[in-house]
Design a protein that fits this description.
Blueprint (H helix, E strand, L loop, with lengths): L8 E4 L5 H12 L3 E6 L14 E5 L5 H11 L4 E4 L14 H29 L2 E6 L13 H21 L4 E8 L5 H8 L4 H10 L9 H12 L10 E4 L6
Parallel strand pairs: 1-2, 1-4, 2-3, 4-5, 5-6, 6-7
Helix pairs in contact: 1-7, 2-3, 3-4
Length: 246
């Protein structure tokens, strides 16, 4: 079914590659006008060929950048907080700097972006916000993901809090929680392992479907939550994990 986002506009952070990139493509395919943003502008250049996509450099850890972007972009119907940072390490390995970076990108980024674009949604009486969290959060965890799991758990709490505070203003807020997804970021972490083949197999074995997820599968979940098909859903966590948490 095409056209599920006809006439809507969106901002997607973390659009340079992986899940964010797939969300932009999926939204555009469904008729949405999309602002694709990333900390670096170079990865966005290939998206500029799509007529319904505009690109903009945006660092979600800088409130002044977000304010300027919100002024330029104006009101939108959909916000997807996809920018994320994956820190590795246990509690004893994780440095304060790694924890702070995780909080900056995974939590403060969503906080600043939502504060910037929520008021216009409230003014219109309609809006959909989708936060990309993870099953590595308050749902479950994995070895050596202390900072990542902690901040993604906080993002789920953030989702539910904003949802309940603004449900009577017409704004829906939901989260997507993926398992291990085939992305350039995951590929680089696998390649850096002492035994990349064993590392890849370990990621696959977490999932009862015996494979990694695709970025398009996560994008499809986001399309559903951004569309009117999910108009009776808010404050919910949509798990897309190939049976990892069964």
């Amino acid at each position: 079914m095409a056209g599920r986002l006809d006439g809507k506009s969106a901002v997607v952070t973390g659009s340079g590659q992986g899940i964010g990139h797939a969300i932009v493509l999926g939204f555009a395919r469904e008729g949405c006008c999309v602002w694709a943003t990333s900390r670096s502008i170079d990865p966005l250049k290939q998206l500029e060929k799509i007529g319904s996509v505009r690109t903009r450099q945006l660092d979600v850890t800088r409130p002044e950048d977000i304010h300027a972007a919100a002024e330029e972009i104006g009101p939108v119907d959909i916000l997807v907080n996809c920018a994320g940072y994956v820190a590795s390490g246990t509690l004893l390995d994780c440095t304060p700097a790694e924890l702070e970076r995780s909080v900056d990108v995974n939590i403060r980024g969503a906080f600043y972006m939502t504060r910037a674009f929520l008021p216009s949604m409230c003014a219109k009486g309609v809006g959909a916000i989708v936060n990309i969290a993870s099953v590595l959060s308050s749902i479950t965890s994995a070895p050596a993901r202390l900072a990542y799991s902690t901040t993604k758990a906080a993002l789920i709490g953030f989702t539910k809090s904003v949802a309940i505070d603004f449900v009577d203003r017409g704004v829906r807020v939901n989260a997507v929680c993926p398992g291990a997804i085939e992305t350039p970021g995951l590929a680089s972490r696998i390649a850096a392992a002492p035994d990349p083949t064993a590392a890849r197999n370990a990621f696959i074995k977490r999932h009862r479907m015996k494979r990694l997820g695709t970025t398009d599968e996560v994008a499809d979940a986001c399309i559903f939550l951004a569309s009117d098909e999910s108009r009776f859903m808010t404050g919910q966590v949509l798990v897309v994990d190939g049976g990892m948490t069964l």
